[in-house]
């Protein structure tokens, strides 16, 4: 029998640091909710707005797959692997932290805030060599269809690669349209994060920034009530 966990936008963790306005779908930093530790292998989904010229100073990560999706503005990334690069809307960045990496993240602009989504996914291999990837995804290729942003490193699916049997998709679904997604494995679940608009996900209504974790299903069906922008994260529920 299908299992659906509803995460309303207004029940997310929230921290306003002045330079950083952050919303946390799962327990993170000073926000702790024992019912929201993770959804399967998905550990973090942060919705951050960073003020002009501000950002996160140099800090370490290890043994985590970190995915950054830019919604508005631009984020400048610099890491100990030698990458210094700005990430813009319609671009996605992945970083396999593996044995350990240091990086910093700053608003690339001094006249505009940056809004980003950052996801952390537990890897299926530990202590791998750190790696980095970044790609532009054409927005027209996700209109009323699922655009694959991230896929497992072991297979030939499109998108950026991570060390986990997980897939991330984005779609801009027009009002009245329906799409279906068949899950890759019966042990997987899908976390649906509605960036904008109004949809139903297997019957669960989701408005702007609402989310639902859906498991024990073979197929996910999205129906758009209004024009919507949606992120899907399919992950193993046991890992």
Structure, explained:
With 239 residues, this protein is mainly beta. The protein has a single domain (3-236), classed as Jelly Rolls (Sandwich), CATH 2.60.120. The protein has no helices and 22 strands. The chain has strands at residues 3-7, 13-16, 20-24, 42-50, 55-61, 65-72, 75-79, 84-87, 91-96, 101-107, 114-121, 131-136, 147-152, 160-162, 167-173, 178-182, 188-196, 199-201, 204-206, 211-215, 219-224, 228-236. The strands form 4 sheets. It has a 7-stranded mixed β-sheet with strand order 1-20-17-22-15-13-14, with no helix packed on it. The model has no long low-confidence stretch (mean pLDDT 96).
- Fraction in beta strands: over 45%
Briefly note the CATH topology name.
Answer: Jelly Rolls
Question: What oligomeric state do these chains adopt?
Answer: single chain
Principal-axis shape: globular
- Please summarize the sheet with the most strands: 7 strands, mixed
Weakly predicted, low-confidence segments: none
How many helices? The count is: 0
Mean pLDDT: 96
CATH hierarchy, class: Mainly Beta
The total beta strand count reads 22
Structural class: mainly beta
């Amino acid at each position: 029998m299908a299992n659906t966990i509803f995460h309303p936008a207004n029940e997310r963790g929230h921290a306003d640091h002045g330079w950083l306005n952050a919303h946390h779908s799962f327990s993170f930093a000073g926000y702790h909710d024992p019912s929201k530790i993770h959804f399967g292998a998905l550990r973090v989904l942060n919705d951050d707005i960073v003020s002009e010229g501000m950002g996160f100073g140099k800090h370490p990560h290890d043994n985590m797959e970190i995915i950054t999706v830019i919604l508005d503005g631009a984020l400048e990334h610099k890491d100990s692997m030698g990458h210094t690069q700005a990430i813009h809307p319609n671009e996605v960045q992945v970083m396999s932290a593996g044995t350990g990496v240091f990086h910093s993240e700053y608003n690339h602009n001094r006249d505009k805030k940056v809004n980003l989504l950052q996801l952390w996914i537990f890897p299926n291999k530990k202590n791998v060599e750190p790696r980095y990837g970044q790609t532009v995804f054409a927005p027209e290729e996700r209109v009323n269809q699922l655009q694959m942003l991230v896929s497992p490193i072991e297979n030939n699916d499109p998108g950026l690669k991570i060390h986990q049997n997980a897939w991330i998709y984005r779609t801009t679904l027009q009002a009245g349209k329906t799409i279906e997604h068949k899950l890759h494995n019966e042990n997987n679940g899908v976390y649906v994060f509605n960036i904008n608009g109004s949809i139903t996900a297997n019957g669960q209504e989701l408005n702007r920034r609402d989310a639902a974790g859906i498991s024990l299903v073979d197929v996910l069906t999205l129906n758009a009530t209004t024009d919507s922008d949606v992120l899907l994260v399919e992950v193993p529920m046991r890992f």
